[in-house]
Write a structure and sequence with these properties.
Shape: elongated
Distance between the termini: 46 Å
CATH architecture: 3-Layer(aba) Sandwich
Structural class: alpha+beta
Number of strands: 6
CATH superfamily: Glutaredoxin
Largest sheet: 4 strands, mixed
CATH topology: Glutaredoxin
Length: 171
């Protein structure tokens, strides 16, 4: 990993999309693995997507945050320019969207494809849909486990919910 991160302009030119990870600095082991996965993904695209990386233990990313106007860490910035400005596509993923590496790596390519194609509106919609799905996932999981333990009866008189095996909650 290089320690290039003094400013965003030091990323090389000639790529269709850029991916900048700004670590939280609280879980260096996890974030190092995440950056490695992002770098691996970027390398597979050739000169299409540049994944900027550095040693997550070194805080040079603070200047990058300032130049992009980012106030919360961690963040993953997806952009159509190495120097995002007005008119550039710039998407910032934060929080829970970054905690599940497999889910992130599954959803990242379609978002970056839209950035490469220059479809700003669809790229933003896709990123927002991904962030919403990550937030809803624990709720849906909880409801799923409860629904497996109830008998739901729908009739003209209403809806009846009865526990199966005497409990709504799995043991």
């Amino acid at each position: 990993m290089e320690d290039w991160g003094l400013n965003i302009g030091s990323a090389p030119s000639g790529y269709d999309a850029y991916c900048f990870y700004i670590p939280s600095g609280t879980d260096i082991e996890y974030e190092t693995r995440l950056v490695s996965r992002l770098e691996e993904f970027g390398e597979k695209t050739g000169n299409v997507i540049y994944v900027a990386s550095w040693n997550v233990g070194v805080q040079t990313y603070i200047k990058l945050m300032e130049s992009l106007g980012i106030k919360e860490r961690p963040a993953l910035v997806l952009t159509s320019s190495r120097r995002p400005r007005k008119g550039s596509i710039k998407i910032i993923l934060r929080g829970k969207a970054l905690r599940n590496t497999d889910l992130l790596m599954e959803n990242l390519p379609p978002i970056l494809d839209l950035i490469v194609m220059g479809d700003k509106k669809e790229a933003i919609k896709k990123a927002m849909k991904f962030e919403r799905s990550v937030k809803l996932r624990p709720l849906v999981k909880g409801l799923d486990s409860i629904m497996r333990n109830v008998k739901l009866t729908i009739s003209w008189n209403g809806i009846t919910v009865e526990p199966i095996k005497g409990s709504l909650y799995p043991s």
